[in-house]
Design a protein that fits this description.
The protein is α+β, with helices and mostly antiparallel strands. The protein has a single domain, classed as 3-Layer(aba) Sandwich (NADH Oxidase), CATH 3.40.109.10. The protein has helices at residues 3-13, 27-37, 56-72, 92-106, 114-122, 144-163, 178-185, 218-221; strands at residues 49-55, 132-139, 167-171, 191-200. Strands 1-2-4-3 form a four-stranded antiparallel sheet, with helices on both faces. The radius of gyration is 18 Å and the shape is globular. The two termini are 33 Å apart.
């Protein structure tokens, strides 16, 4: 394949994976992914991001704590920023609902099974079994442009991982527990948690990993004048 085909395949093959094999990911490979991703663009080369990687026993202890808080004490925690608007409008609300419905349908979960859906959502707190968890932060002095920069960096991390045979799942669910995460990881007060991310090798035997979400046709999102 030529370069275009390789890049196109990495982009189109990337998707959110929600079940992982226990196969370890070497620290040097994580470092390589972040190093390559540092070439992501940012305004005036500010590079306003920082990455925290958790593995092994440290990750397991953190996941146990977050999983317990999610299931037993969720109202005690609140995210610092709102990911979705208070009132989502069309067509976005339909797209969001369809994504959830398709996932839960694969898992055999119906809307009246609130406990089952909550337990599935709680798997976020365990990085879906991935051996590596990543947390992305941004310097609090940054404005919206810095958040755009971090978004491009995070996307680049996912593509760099995919190019190396690894899979990912970006997770805003962690932001609800930014205080616990900040304390356990000793994140400086000047950094704000953006999201977490699962990193590892996909368990292709799990039905949730068969989900391939739709994308809008180019005619819907592109205007050429």
């Amino acid at each position: 394949m030529n370069n275009q085909q390789i890049v196109d395949q990495v982009i189109t093959d990337r998707r959110s994976i929600r079940a992982y094999l226990p196969t370890p990911v070497p620290n040097e490979l994580v470092k390589e992914i972040i190093q390559v991703s540092s070439r992501a663009p940012s305004g005036n080369n500010a590079q306003p991001w920082h990455v925290y990687a958790v593995t092994g026993d440290f990750k397991d202890r953190l996941c146990t704590e977050l999983h317990g808080e999610f299931l037993n004490n969720p109202t005690a925690h609140r995210a610092e920023y709102r990911y979705y608007p208070k009132e989502m409008i069309e067509p976005f609300i339909t797209r969001k609902r369809k994504n959830g419905i398709e996932l839960y349908k694969l898992l055999g979960l119906t809307r009246d099974n609130e406990l089952g859906m909550r337990q599935q959502h709680a798997k976020n707190m365990q990085f879906f079994g991935a051996p590596v968890g990543l947390f992305f932060t941004i310097d609090r002095s940054m404005e919206k442009g810095g958040w755009l920069d971090c978004g491009m960096f995070i996307q680049t991390v996912m593509l760099a991982a995919k190019a190396r045979g690894l899979d990912t799942c970006p997770q805003a669910a962690f932001t609800q527990f930014h205080q616990i995460i900040g304390q356990r990881l000793n994140i400086p007060a000047n950094q704000q948690l953006i999201c977490g991310m699962s990193l590892g090798y996909a368990d292709l035997s799990k039905i949730e990993n068969t989900l391939v979400t739709e994308r809008e046709p180019v005619e819907t999102v592109l205007t050429i004048l």
